[in-house]
Amino acid sequence: MLSYLIQRVPLTLRPAISRSLLRPKYPARMSSTVPPVVPTTQPNVSYRPLALPLSEDSPDIRQKYRPFILEDNATEDWINNLDLSTVADMAEDNLRVTNQRLKVLVLYGSLRKRSYSKLVALEASRILFRLGCDVRVFDPEGLPMKNESDVSHPKVQELRELSLWSDGHVWVSPEQHGNLTAVFKNQIDWIPLSTGSVRPTQGRTLAIAQVCGGSQSFNAVNSLRILGRWMRMFTIPNQSSIPKAYTQFPDEGQPGDQRLMPSGNRDRLVDCMEEFIKYTILMRPHIGLFGDRFSEREEKKRKEEKLDATAK
């Protein structure tokens, strides 16, 4: 369209118009105030010990929320040999500057003994943990079905406190009958949009994934994306859908039967976790800004005026 319009202009004016239309409006200001993050590739230092060490971790939290931690030599694991130099640099800088690890809540949607959504959630957790995140995986076993009488149930309170604690979430659900499972949806239903003036999910980042028993589908991740938007979360653009999940792991009882085998599906999960950390690092300092809304400011002002009038 732009080239068509230029062709309709007299020849003598075309160079000036072309330059004025195509020239960036504020090139100097943009480049000076927002320096780009340049990707780096340093395979020789791909393994960096950013993970929370045992000496700095709470034994209770480690036992309850970190079932993904491996007892084997971590340096030999495939996750620790990934070339994630750019995001590792970002995570290392963020930890040094803020002295705070990214806090990530991981949810999965099945109670089966060998749950593939849980296995994928644990693999995602290992990637995040390797990159310095404080990762906590919630176990949905024992969480009551959503109702009005179990708000004080210990599992409900645990889930709500974890959501409030977190900087971001990772959701992994199986797809059943063309959508996410009841086990997963029940967890989301128990997380309120607001508790008084506190919003347990607003402004947090979200990564989504699904596992399929058959061919690849995207119904569950599409529903997860809708839920994330409804919960006022920032869902990353990327997503993971693993088809025939039972073929992506060694058979039960075989060595490494809880670990994803090499494939494009595994690489895509790494992509999602890498992207999730980048977005969380960039957005976390501005959660308050993103949640500052005109309508809510006006509502707060009206309430304050009403209180002042009542006091008089």
UniProtKB/TrEMBL annotation:
One Pfam family linked to the record: FMN_red
Domain NADPH-dependent FMN reductase-like: 103-246
Keywords of the record: Flavoprotein, FMN, NADP, Nucleotide-binding, Oxidoreductase
Top-level taxon of origin: Eukaryota
Cofactor needs: FMN
Presence of keyword Metal-binding: no
InterPro entries in UniProt: Arsenate-R_ArsH, Flavoprotein-like_sf, FMN_Rdtase-like_dom
GO molecular function: nucleotide binding; oxidoreductase activity, acting on NAD(P)H, quinone or similar compound as acceptor
Keyword Nucleotide-binding: yes
PANTHER family the UniProt entry points to: ARSENIC RESISTANCE PROTEIN ARSH (AFU_ORTHOLOGUE AFUA_5G15030)
UniProt subunit comment: Homotetramer.
NCBIfam families given in the database record: resist_ArsH
Protein name: NADPH-dependent FMN reductase-like domain-containing protein
